[in-house]
Protein 1
Amino acid sequence: MEDFFKKWLLDPTMGKLIASVFGVILILFCIRFINRYVSRFVEDSKQYRLRKIINFIGYIVCIALLGVIFSDRLSKLTVAFGVAGAGIAFALQEVIASIAGWIAISLSHFFTTGDRILLGGIKGDVIDIGLLRTTLMECGGWVNGDLYNGRIVRISNSFVFKEPVFNYSADFPFLWDEILIPVKHGSDLKLARDIIKNIVHEVVGDYSIDAAKSWKEIVKKFKIEPAKVEPTVTLSFNENWVEFTIRYVVDYKERRMKKDKIFTQILEEFIKTQNVVSIASTAIDISLVKTTGFDVNINKNL
């Protein structure tokens, strides 16, 4: 029994295994220790990314350590690893595509945590980017508008190669939005336009300043024409009503709230005009007019 333990303890392979276990444990302990004290020296907004970088470096160090310890063994298994690698690559092609997607996301900046994106038919805010999956806090679904519905969705990173990636906040963190206001024929159109312009500039006018700065940066980065970011009000009409179209830029997270504020203030101001300006609708208006009396004579000879 004593000889068995001596052989077991002095076996080179066993020594490498023990060294590997202790080395990996030590590296993981260091990663955990560093992550625990990150919050003392780094802002909250930067802690997530720093932890990801620290974890990634730790995993690379673990792999490198194992490679150094077992380097003599690995050189003898080159052919076997080649054959096994081909089979593994075929069986795990979706996993490999997801890892490639993670590399593309990290290097090409398709999106980052905090961005609002549409990926794989799911819209939401990116809350985590893992090696295989991206995690979103979903928006929409059975909830109208851009509000969270409470579901957390994990999407394979391979989707960045299969479908378009819609990013609502990268480079230009604003959206253009439009509101249509139908006004009755016969209303004071000049007054209506003035009311709408004043309200729109009051509610979302400040966004145009920051949007103009962001757009200048995009023009430098991409081949794209300058765009008008100031609020505009245009008019058109048909046989039913006159229609004002309001176009403006707004923060992608506040689109619904600002639209509600614009609608509310426009309705309040139109009501104050006492029917000088009225909202049109598809309902039929029937007016009853009192007429003067008249006599009808029927000639029986006809």
Protein 2
Amino acid sequence: MDQPPLTQTSIAPLLFSRLGDEWNAWVDKVDEIVNHQGGIFGIEQVRTWENALDGFADAKGFEGSAVMKDIRDKWVLKVGWLVNRVYHVSMDV
């Protein structure tokens, strides 16, 4: 995200798929540690993750923001409870 727009446009297609895979694997690992192994992380660390994910997901002009929104939502769904954040599903039909 810190790269100039031309650089982002050039490398984005090459990186987004791989970055998405890595972020998803990380969310799955955190989920495994806290929800299945009884592990825990410090609140400051979890808040840092939360802020970073929100920053990537909400970034304006960042091509990968759609991918990061999905990853952020997955993180909230699986481990958001660590920071009292839960995923809300709309019941509107």
